[in-house]
Amino acid sequence: MSDTITEAQTAATETATHGVQLSDAAAAKVASLLEQEGRDDLRLRLAVQPGGCSGLIYQLYFDERLLDGDTTAGFEPGVEVVVDKMSVPYLDGATIDFEDTIQKQGFTIDNPNAQGSCACGDSFH
Predict the structure, then answer these.
(1) How many independent structural domains does the chain possess?
(2) What Pfam families does its record include (predicted)?
(3) Which end of the chain is more exposed for a tag (fewer CB within 10 A), N or C?
(4) Structural domain range at position 107
């Protein structure tokens, strides 16, 4: 009986995971940015917020907080991606990538859940 209680307590304290993936290029860029900041307590947070011309916009930023209901996933080299519980259904299966070409430099999000996006590519529905 004590084993069951211990397992239940352990499961309750663990943070749930999400289905967002981070490409190797994006993970390397995030690790590089964290190193430049000189901080090892930051996580990459991806969220979906109302806004934009198509209804929803992505928020991608560094965060030191872990909020109630957050889901996490770890990637090499030591990068953690956090998604809040309300954003998980919109982002399950999405991939964060980093492009560095003459035409474009920055993070991109390939989201199979987006039914369409605006011409500028900043929002989706």
Answers:
(1) 1
(2) Fe-S_biosyn
(3) N
(4) 20-124
- Closest by alpha carbon to 22, among 60, 66, 50? 60
Asked if pLDDT for residue 8 goes beyond 60, the answer is no
**pLDDT value at 125 more than 80:** no
Q: Which residue has the tokens 């430049």?
A: 36
Main-chain dihedrals φ then ψ at residue 10, nearest 5 degrees: -65, -45
CATH of the domain at 48: 2.60.300.12
For the chain, helix (H) and strand (E) counts, in that order, are: 3, 8
24 located within any domain:
yes
What is the pLDDT averaged over residues 43-70? 89
Residue 2 pLDDT > 90: no
Is 14 part of a structural domain of the chain? no
The DSSP string of 44-94 is: EEEEEEE-STTSEEEEEEEE----TT-EEEEETTTEEEEE-TTTHHHHTT-
Q: What is the pLDDT of residue 45?
A: 97
